[in-house]
Amino acid sequence: MKRFERATAKIFATLFGLIVAALGGEGLLGTMPVAVAGPNPITTCRTITSNSTLAANIVATLAQNPCIVFGADNIALFMDNHTIDMRTVGLDAVAIETAGHTNVRVEGPGTVLTQKTVPCGPLVDPPPVVPPGSITVSGGSNVRIRDVSVKNVGVGGTSLTVVTRCGTGIVLNGTPGALLLDNLVDSYARGVWVVNSSNVAGGGASLIGHNIITNNSSSLDPPSFGLALDGTSDWVVVHNIATRNGGHTHFEAGITMTTILGASGSNQNQIVGNATDMNVGSGIEVFTGSVGNKIVNNHATGNSLLFADLADDNAPTFTPPGFNTWMFNNVCGSERGDIPPGVCPVTIP
Are 332 and 307 in contact (CB under 8 A)? Predict the structure, then answer.
C-alpha cells in the first residue's frame, strides 16, 4: 500500500507541475507569443503572419477552406468571443490550420461551427490518410488551443444525431508538444484525434486538460471515439470530461490509447482524473500493443455493459501491474482484459 501511495503521490506531483506551468505561461511554452487580445483586427478568412484578433464573426464560403491559416512561427490568433462559421463548406471544412508552424496558439473564448454530416465520404477503418479536423494542427511543436468551442451542428444549428455525424473536431498530426486546454468538442464522429505526436525532448508540454469531449459518436463514420492517442506516447490527459462518445459499429471508447494510423503503440501516457461515463464502448480502453500507460483516479461508470468501463486488450497477465498500470483508486463498475482483479468490482470475460 505504501508503494502504491508513493507512486500515486509522485504522479500527482508531476501533473501539478505540468499544469501550473502550462496554465501560467512560459515555463513549458518556450517562446510562445505574449501579446494580449487586440492586435491586427481581421474580419475575413486569411493567412496570418503576426498576432491577429477576430474583430467580427466570419462566415466562410466554399472557396475559403481552410479559413484561418498560420503563416509564421511565434504568433497567436485571439478569437475574442467571435465565431468562425464553416457550415457552408461541408465535410472537409477546416476553420483553423497551423500549417506546420511552431510556438503558435489559438486563444478563445471563441466558437467554430461546422456541418459535417451524411454522406460521410470514403473514410474507412483504418483510413488511408489522417483526415483533417475542424481545427487541424499539423507538424510543428509548442502549439496551444485554448477555450474554443468546436461544434458540429445541423441546419439552423440543430443537433446532429448518431446517424448523421461525420468528421473530426480537432486533429493533431505529427505534433510533439501541444496543449489542448478548456475546449469543447461536440457531435462529431471523432472528438480529438492525436496521431504520431509522441513527445520528444525540446518539444514542449504534451497535455490535454480540462476539455469537454461529448456526443462524438457515429454509426456511419468509423472509427468513432471521444479522444484517441494514436501512435502517440508520453502525453498527460488530465481532468477531462469524455461522455457519450464511441462508435455504434466499432465501439471505441471515450478515451483510448490505440494504433489506428499510428506507426507504433501509444505508450507511457498518464491518464489521470478524467470523467469517462456513459460512452458507447468502454470509458477508457487500451488497445493491444500500447503499454506502459498509467491510468489513475479516473471516474468511469455507465459505459458499455459488453465492453466494460475500463478495458485493456493486451494479452492478460493478471499480474500487477500488467502491460499498463491501472490504479485501484479509479472509480468504475466493470473491467475487462489485462487489469488486475479488484480495480473495478465486476470483471467481464
Answer: no
242 contact partners, CB below 8 Å, separation of at least 6? 191, 213, 214, 226, 227, 254, 255, 274, 275, 276, 279, 283
Give the whole-angstrom CA distance, residue 210 versus residue 227.
13
Cell numbers describing residue 288: 493491444
Cβ-proximal residues to 283 (8 Å cutoff; 6+ apart), any chain: 242, 253, 254, 255, 276, 277, 298, 300, 301, 303, 309, 310, 332
Q: How far apart are alpha carbons 289 and 184 in whole angstroms?
A: 30
pTM of the model: 0.90
Do 123 and 132 meet the contact criterion of CB atoms below 8 Å apart?
no
Q: Choose among 264, 239, 66, 263: nearest CA to 255.
A: 239
Angle at 257 between CA 256 and CA 261, to 5 degrees: 105
What nine digits make up the cell of 267?
A: 505508450
List residues bridging with 147 in a β-sheet: none
Q: 22: helix, coil or strand?
A: helix
Instruction: At 275, list the grid cell.
Output: 470523467
- pLDDT in single tens digits along all 349 residues of the chain: 444 445 555 555 555 455 544 544 443 444 445 444 568 999 999 999 999 999 999 999 999 999 999 999 999 999 999 999 999 999 999 999 999 999 999 999 999 999 999 888 765 445 557 889 999 999 999 999 999 999 999 888 888 999 999 999 999 999 998 999 999 999 999 999 999 999 886 666 799 999 999 999 998 888 899 999 999 999 999 999 999 999 877 778 999 999 888 878 999 999 999 999 999 999 999 999 999 999 999 999 999 998 999 999 998 765 666 799 999 999 999 999 999 899 999 999 8
Omega into 340 within 30° of 0, i.e. cis?
no
